[in-house]
Amino acid sequence: MVKVMSWIYLVAAGLLEVVWAYFMKQSEGFTRLVPTSITIVAMIASFALLSMAMRTLPLSTAYTVWTGIGAVGAFLIGTFLLGEPANAMRITAALLITAGLVLMKLS
């Protein structure tokens, strides 16, 4: 059960990484109060959950999955909410990151 909770913490931490990355973009260089505040709170929560997950998960797995969720999530947010380009190479890169996350979990 502890291992399951660690994975829940890790996924939540990764999702919060996406949240803080998005709001960091919205903060316009930390010049807007609300997006800056959300960025800081989400960062702290993300790091706290990552730390809790690392109590039982290996560093290599936890950190890789955390950054992978953040990278793919940021790509999706950028593409669908911010109108950033989604060409074949960028989509392939996101799929390769996702494949790496699955392999890391299975290992």
From TrEMBL:
<dbReference type="InterPro" id="IPR045324">
    <property type="entry name" value="Small_multidrug_res"/>
</dbReference>
<feature type="transmembrane region" description="Helical">
    <location>
        <begin position="30"/>
        <end position="50"/>
    </location>
</feature>
<keyword id="KW-0812">Transmembrane</keyword>
<protein>
    <recommendedName>
        <fullName>Guanidinium exporter</fullName>
    </recommendedName>
</protein>
<dbReference type="Pfam" id="PF00893">
    <property type="entry name" value="Multi_Drug_Res"/>
</dbReference>
<keyword id="KW-0813">Transport</keyword>
<keyword id="KW-1003">Cell membrane</keyword>
<comment type="similarity">
    <text>Belongs to the drug/metabolite transporter (DMT) superfamily. Small multidrug resistance (SMR) (TC 2.A.7.1) family. Gdx/SugE subfamily.</text>
</comment>
<keyword id="KW-1133">Transmembrane helix</keyword>
<feature type="transmembrane region" description="Helical">
    <location>
        <begin position="7"/>
        <end position="24"/>
    </location>
</feature>
<dbReference type="InterPro" id="IPR037185">
    <property type="entry name" value="EmrE-like"/>
</dbReference>
<dbReference type="InterPro" id="IPR000390">
    <property type="entry name" value="Small_drug/metabolite_transptr"/>
</dbReference>
<feature type="transmembrane region" description="Helical">
    <location>
        <begin position="62"/>
        <end position="82"/>
    </location>
</feature>
<keyword id="KW-0472">Membrane</keyword>
